Amino acid sequence: MLKDLQPEEKKAQTDPIMTLNKRLNLIVCVFLLFAGLALCSATNVLPVNYRLLQDDDEKQREEIEKAAKKLRKQAEDRYADGVYWQAAVDLILILDFYPAYSQKEEVIFLLARSLYEMQMYEGADALYRHLLRSVKRPRLVAESILGLQKVAFQKNDYQQSLKFYQVLESHYTQHDGIHEARYFAEQTYFNLQNYNLVHNIAAHINKKSAFYPFARYTSGLAHVKKKV
After folding, report:
1. What are the b/e assignments for 192-223, b being 16+ CB within 10 Å?
2. Per-position b or e across 115-128, b if 16+ CB within 10 A of its CB
3. pLDDT of 183-197, one tens digit each?
4. 96 burial class (0-12, 13-18, 19+ CB within 10 angstroms)?
5. What is the pTM of this model?
């Protein structure tokens, strides 16, 4: 019940893909890639000869950056509009045609978020773990850990979700997403019927956070549950 109350978690669009089980996630990802390639061929958005560009050519690098940046902006807009499928297609196009793009890690991160929104948790999990192995920027590391916490929560793997949360509390309390992490931890403890910890975590969620009113609601439910 509480999963339906998650703030700023846009519901994925109604699509047959949502009914597929996790064993089909890889097939779907491949389909996304080929759908993107078909779109490219039909619209001539990406010249095929970009695959042949040399990294030591400054002008060509600038062209790659410009083209990838434009496609990334389109993906970000589609993600903001809740069109996660098309956003994922755009992001896969960038990874396929512009592997030398300087902001590739940001592209992978947004792709992971898109897969999460489409309930493709196995794919999102794999991308977040890839980022943890390859990135050094604290923001992306923290965001990836938060992503893994949320994925584990959605898969009802509550103990694993709490492990990721504890890493965030130990090392990334200044991270912008810490209150979202606390919100998911609060829900996790609620589902585990540990109502005392629900109250404790709710007390540490900033009142200015978008998650605060939802956390208060969960805390109120926990108070009622304790009395039943």
Report:
1. eeebebbbebbeebeeebebbebbeebbebbe
2. bbbbbbbbbbbbbb
3. 999 999 999 999 889
4. middle
5. 0.77
Give the residue among 29, 36, 15, 41 at the shortest CA–CA distance from 86.
36
Q: Write the pLDDT tens digit of every residue in 45-83.
A: 444 444 444 445 777 888 889 999 999 999 999 999 999
Q: Positive or negative, the Cα torsion across 196, 197, 199, 203?
A: positive
- The C-alpha angle with vertex 186 and arms to 182 and 190, in degrees rounded to 5, equals 170
CA gap 81, 74 in Å, rounded:
11
Q: How many residues does the chain have?
A: 228
Extract the tokens encoding 225. Answer: 């549950």
